[in-house]
Amino acid sequence: MSMISYPLRVFFDCSTAHLSEASSTYLNVHADQGDELVAATPYGWFIWVGEGDRDNLPTDLVGITEYARRLGAEYILFDRDAPEDEALARFLGRADALPGSRRARPGGE
Questions:
Q1: Please, what's the b/e burial string for 18-31 (b: 16 or more CB within 10 A of its CB; e: otherwise)?
Q2: Which of 2, 62, 75, 83 has its CA 20 to 30 A from that of 30?
Q3: Partners of 9 in beta bridges
Q4: Which helix (H) or strand (E) holds 78?
Q5: Residue 47: inside a domain, yes or no?
């Protein structure tokens, strides 16, 4: 039996508690605009951790993406149920942050 080789990608499972309000807003705006690098999920966001321009990213999001890259991740899954990481700042009360379109919809969980 031959093995089929599939490209596997690594993602960093990150709590939304590590996102500031500015970062949540940034991710919402880019997901709503259809930015191919940001996708809203029912419980957070999925983003690509590229090497591109970071000038417009909120400071905390820059730190998280750099940390994920050091870990070898190509993507980050921001999830309200993901474990918190002691190496990252925590924003109180932000663990339940969800994409704006999910918060506005009754039963959006």
A1: bbbeebbebbbebb
A2: 83
A3: none
A4: strand 75-79
A5: yes
Whether residue 54 is contained in a domain is answered as yes
Rounded CA-CA distance 54/57 in Å is 5
CA distance 77 to 68: 10
Q: Where are the alpha helices (DSSP H) in the chain?
A: 21-32, 59-70, 100-103
Instruction: Pull the structure tokens for residue 97.
Output: 């942050």
Q: What is the tens place of the pLDDT at every residue in 85-97?
A: 999 999 876 656 6
Total tally of structural domains belonging to the chain: 1
Closest residue by Cα to residue 53 from 65, 41, 44: 65
- Domain assignment present for 1: no
